[in-house]
Design goal:
This protein is about 45% helix and about 30% strand. The chain is an alpha+beta fold and about 100 residues long. The chain is elongated. The two termini are about 25 Å apart.
Length: about 100
């Protein structure tokens, strides 16, 4: 299932990981593991944030995906199913 992950990072923990050079490594490892179709870095509520759209094979994967964000970044973490335009068209066509 296509899902979107949003991680909003704690500023102080993010600063620490930037200072010690570990933030790029954490993001690279996450992207290698998830193989997202899209990745965006921005701000959310005044804090660093990243959005990743990827295929979640099984809900049992969520702890392994979320915990590095919680533990390393003190992040607020959300994951939600999402659709692209093709998915929306297909779903609306099923309404009759």
């Amino acid at each position: 299932m296509r899902v979107m992950l949003r991680a909003t990072m704690d500023t102080e923990k993010g600063n620490e990981l930037i200072r010690n050079g570990k933030l790029p490594q954490l993001m690279q490892e996450t992207m290698e593991r998830l193989k997202p179709e899209a990745v965006y870095f921005t701000t959310n509520e005044g804090c660093r944030a990243c959005y990743m759209v990827f295929d979640l094979q099984d809900s049992s994967q969520i702890p392994a995906i979320a915990e590095p964000f919680f533990m390393s970044l003190g992040a607020k973490f959300e994951i939600a199913p999402v659709m692209n335009a093709e998915d929306l068209h297909k779903g609306l066509a099923q309404l009759g």
